[in-house]
Amino acid sequence: MAKKIVLAYSGGLDTSVAIKWLMERGYEVVCYMGDVGQGTDIERSRKRALRIGAKKCIVGDLKEKFIKDYAFRALKAGALYQGKYNLATALSRPIIAEAMVDVAKKEKAAAIAHGCTGKGNDQVRFEVTFHLKAPKLKVIAPVREWELTTRESEIDYAKKHGIPIEQTKKKLYSIDRNLWGISVEGGDLEDPWVEPPKDTYISSARIEDAPRKAEYVTVTFKKGVPVAINEKKYAPVQLVRKLNKMGGVHGVGRVDMVEDRLVGIKSREIYEAPASTILYAGHAAIEELVLDRETRRHKKLLSERYAELVYYGLWFVPLKEAIDAFMDSTQTDVSGEVKLKLYKGNVTVCGRKSPKSRYKLELATYGKGDVFDQSLAKGFIDLWALPFKR
Questions:
Q1: Do residues 193 and 318 share a domain?
Q2: Which of the following is catalytic: 93, 125, 241, 352?
Q3: Active-site entry in 16, 46, 122, 177
Q4: Domain span at residue 146?
Q5: Engineering a disulfide at 118: which of 22, 144, 206, 307 sits with its beta carbon 3.0 to 4.6 angstroms away?
């Protein structure tokens, strides 16, 4: 009797080939597709897996949990890897991996597999979660182990075995998409000197094609979480979809970066994240109003560490959970509205207000109503400088 293995299946080239490759090694393959808002035809991909030879293809709807418990947590933390990347792909891996472990237990599987390469970060994110949640399960990574050393050879293998795929040797991009963002790599993009071709970006307009008229949007936050757009309330998934559409029209959210991968190499990555870019700008603007200086300073340090932990696949470790508790405590007063302008790829904060604002007009103004006692400044400066005098 063949041993069962649960494979993280996306419907793409690597995992489609992996089904057949694992079958050739005596495994009964159960595919798992975590729906985090890829926007692809899930049913079509599911049928493809069965056509290739998978015993089952289970689809899990993870969209709401992904945005609410993962993406919005990173937003509250202000987490951006290298100050640019919103961690969309990194955030999706632990939620999918945890769901796979649940499926593996129900299916009484002997092993669990993913389609990540040995050069990338995703292998770490999947396998760390597997080790923490099901340490006794055997982990197999076909792309690290098989003889198919290039995407071209994978395509040849697929053709030989009648595996239906969408990639061609002319367009070899690797694309990962979810509600929080899109990542694109490979092909011509591997040369950091080459400008991304027009077909690189999927959800956002070219700056040259974006409207010449700006669009204003008001986002409402409650305890650090976005809850409304232009005073209309939305559930988390619908809110992100709405802002992705609005931002995409104006070319918002494009990132082209050379990234420091966990495995030690540098990689050129292209990201699209219209909604996330709008929300990070708005969230930061509300925090400027309501957080005291020392809390903001310390939060900034932890934001960078938080981003690293997520990027490194350490979502379920004690330190990350401890930082979550700190971040939650900082968000108690992060409520209010922020007005943003979307124009030619830019998001500009135009106004912000909050019932918890620490901004006091009577202290900040230089005009009528000023209550700041400027006579106190000399004594303050003398004491401030005192430790540094010789």
A1: yes
A2: 93
A3: 122
A4: 3-170
A5: 144
Is residue 186 domain-shared with residue 335, that is, in the same domain? yes
The answer on 202 and 73 residing in a single domain is: no
Number of domains in the chain: 2
Hey, what long-range contacts does 297-300 have (CB within 8 A, 24 or more apart)?
A: 299/78, 299/326, 299/327, 299/330, 300/78
Active-site option among 10, 14, 92, 354: 14
Kindly list the averaged pLDDT for each block of 10 residues, start to end, along the chain of length 390. Answer: 90 91 95 91 90 95 98 98 97 97 96 92 96 96 89 89 72 83 90 92 93 98 98 98 98 96 93 98 98 97 98 97 98 98 98 96 91 93 95
174 annotated active-site: yes
Cβ atoms of residues 18 and 7 within 8 Å: yes
Identify whether 229 is part of a domain: yes
Catalytic residue among 35, 144, 174, 328: 174
* Same domain, residue pair 217 and 151: no
Q: What is the H or E stretch that residue 216 is in?
A: strand 215-222
Instruction: Note the pTM of the prediction, 2 decimals.
Output: 0.93
Cα 363 to Cα 375: distance, rounded to the nearest angstrom: 14
Q: Which amino acid is at 330?
A: T
What CATH number is attached to the domain comprising 162?
3.40.50.620
Do residues 346 and 308 share a domain? Answer: yes
Sign of the alpha-carbon torsion through 50, 160, 152, 19? positive
Considering only CA atoms, which of 89, 111, 34, 13 is closest in space to residue 259?
89
Backbone Cα Rg of the chain: 24
| Residue the block writes with tokens 């020392």 | 294
